[in-house]
């Protein structure tokens, strides 16, 4: 069996699985750290509205989109941003807006950063290099 690799995961902080997500500012390269709830029931990466500035975005000018969440329908702002997750830099679709649960790391960004393998007797995952996560050979 492959031993689980937690890297920067803040495993089960307060009873929930957590991971560090860094937003990378496109101009300055500055990384801003967020503790994200690993939410495999969520499809996308979600930050509060203030996080948009750390991604080099003007929240007020982003186009709103209606999204159905566990708490009901809300209007969020959507943008493609650069993030670092488990040491892998990748482009991810993120939503910004009211986030009562805090930062959520949904399946789309999580699966971009990990290579997952299953077989009939075991499971395991590895962290790919940045180039393989971005689709570069």
Characterization of the model:
- It is a single chain.
- By secondary structure, the chain is mainly β.
- It has a single domain (10-133), classed as Cathepsin D, subunit A, domain 1 (Beta Barrel).
- It is built from two helices and ten strands.
- The strands form two sheets. Strands 1, 2, 3, 4, 5, 6, 7 and 8 form an eight-stranded mixed beta sheet that branches. The chain has a two-stranded antiparallel ribbon with strand order 9-10.
- The chain is globular.
- Mean pLDDT is 80; it is low at 1-9.
Key structural traits:
8-stranded mixed β-sheet; mainly beta; 8% helix; disordered N terminus; 137 residues; Cathepsin D, subunit A, domain 1; 47% strand
Query: CATH superfamily, please?
Result: Acid Proteases
Q: Element order, helices and strands? A: EEEEEEEEHEEH
The number of E-state strands comes to 10
Shape-level CATH architecture? Beta Barrel
Radius of gyration: 15 Å
Helix content class: under 10%
| Shape estimate | globular
CATH class descriptor name: Mainly Beta
Mean pLDDT: 80
What's the helix count? 2
Structural class: mainly beta
Strand coverage percent: over 45%
Termini distance?
28 Å
Low-confidence stretches: 1-9
């Amino acid at each position: 069996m492959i031993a689980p690799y937690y890297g920067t995961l803040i495993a089960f902080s307060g009873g929930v699985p957590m991971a560090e997500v860094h937003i990378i500012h496109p101009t300055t390269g500055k990384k801003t750290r967020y503790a994200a709830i690993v939410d495999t029931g969520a499809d996308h990466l979600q930050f509060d509205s203030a996080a948009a500035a750390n991604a080099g975005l003007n929240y007020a000018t982003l186009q709103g989109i209606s999204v159905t969440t566990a708490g009901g329908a809300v209007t969020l702002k959507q943008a493609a941003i650069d993030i670092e997750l488990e040491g892998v830099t990748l482009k991810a679709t993120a939503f910004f807006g009211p986030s009562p649960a805090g930062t959520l790391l949904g399946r789309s960004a999580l699966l971009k950063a990990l290579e997952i393998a299953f077989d009939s007797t075991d499971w395991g995952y590895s962290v790919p290099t940045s180039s393989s996560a971005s689709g570069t050979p």
